[in-house]
Amino acid sequence: MLRVASYNIRKSIGTDWRRRPMQTLAVLNEIDADVVALQEVDRRFGARTSSLPRQAIRDETRYVPVALDARPGGLGWHGNVVLVRDGIEVLGADCLTLPALEPRGAAFVELAVGKARLRVVAMHLGLLGLWRRRQAAAILSHLMSLKPGVPTVMMGDLNEWNPQGRCFKLFGKAHQVVVPGRSFPSRMPLGALDRIILSPEVRLVDTGVHVSNRSRGASDHLPVYADVAFPGSESVRRHVRPLVSQP
């Protein structure tokens, strides 16, 4: 099995409105995922530098950021960042600008996990339903242009409150839209905005929302995770720890 996770870190600003990147990194260590899609990593204005220092990621976690077409001082593509644990090989990365009124994008990353291959799509959809549908269609269209048959996990903040939202229906035509649970706002979750979407080659083993004292305060979103299996993943030796509340 492999654990994947998605987390909107709100530029490392906690619910106390203080920027605490080390708190964000501590939450990532709690989740103990193999691949993580982050949203809102880079600051929105000015030089749009990363809220997570690259060296701190290396020093405080077991993750390596995937190299994307980021601005100088930034880490992600329109705020989207993919982190992989040591030992997972990055075969390639492709960035897509999404149709939107405000800047939006998605990152497509090809990984070698042991003998297995895995495609990860990190995304953050817009606030308006019409644009979310267009963005979902653009992501699916780009997937169609890539090598078929590669197990694929799409994940991110879809910004969709309606369980029957049309962007879910678009993704759900050929993929499984996983609902880990309510993840926003972190102090009193009401909406399942953060989703994980699996291609038919990927089997869902378990999923959930990571709730801890740290995660409730580190961002306005809670992280979501899924344990998955896919062709070749049996070659990956991994012990998945049960998630428990952390101090």
TrEMBL record:
Domain Endonuclease/exonuclease/phosphatase: 5-221
InterPro entries: Endo/exonu/phosph_ase_sf (IPR036691), Endo/exonuclease/phosphatase (IPR005135), GPI-anchor_lipid_remodeler (IPR051916)
One GO MF term attached to the UniProt entry: endonuclease activity
Record keyword Lipid biosynthesis present: no
Pfam families: Exo_endo_phos (PF03372)
Keywords attached to this entry: Endonuclease, Hydrolase, Nuclease
PANTHER family according to UniProt: CALCOFLUOR WHITE HYPERSENSITIVE PROTEIN PRECURSOR, ENDONUCLEASE_EXONUCLEASE_PHOSPHATASE DOMAIN-CONTAINING PROTEIN
Name this protein carries in UniProt: Endonuclease/exonuclease/phosphatase family protein
Organism this protein belongs to: Jiella mangrovi
